[in-house]
Design a protein that fits this description.
- There is one protein chain.
- Strand 2 and strand 3 form a beta hairpin.
- It is globular and about 45 Å long.
- It is an alpha+beta fold.
- Helices cover 43% and strands 12% of the residues.
- It has 2 domains: 53 residues, no CATH class; 64 residues, no CATH class.
- It is built from 5 helices and 3 strands; from the N terminus they run αβββαααα.
């Protein structure tokens, strides 16, 4: 019997638009440059990196700018994934957004990241939200000072 290769995913996962090497690296606690390949399959993401070959759920990754904003369907996927974590996002989301605040090149971009966090704040703990507010305020102050 001759094996035939499986075709690529027939339909893209709705959360595939949020896949980024930065988020996956932070989730897997590694550097983005240590990731060799990211394959988006129908239900999971296959990540190959330095000493690593693993699967990541689409619902583990935070939303990003530059793509369609989170929808009700996305929120449903996240909540379903977070059921075992008291319906809260993984802890690395807090650090992901803090990094995005710190790397924002200008005030408008920082504001856009802040608005995105505001749309998904239901999934963050009060402590995480408070910490992100502090980081946001610090970065906003720095942007205004450099103006």
């Amino acid at each position: 019997m001759v094996a035939t290769p499986e075709p690529k995913a027939k339909s893209a996962h709705p959360l595939s638009r949020f896949v980024s090497a930065e988020a996956i690296a932070l989730h897997l606690q590694m550097q983005p440059e240590d990731i060799y390949r990211i394959d988006c399959w129908r239900y999971v993401i296959h990540v190959v990196g330095k000493g690593l070959s693993t699967f990541v759920s689409y619902a583990d990754l935070p939303p990003i700018l530059g793509v369609e904003s989170p929808t009700a369907e996305d929120i449903h996927c996240w909540r379903k994934r977070w059921k075992s974590n008291k319906f809260k996002a993984p802890d690395f989301w807090k650090e992901f957004y803090a990094q995005k605040f710190r790397k924002a090149p200008y005030l408008e971009k920082l504001h856009s990241w802040g608005k995105l966090v505001a749309t998904i704040k239901f999934g963050l703990s009060e402590a995480a939200l408070e910490w992100l507010r502090i980081v946001y305020a610090q970065e906003r102050k720095l942007c205004l000072q450099s103006f």
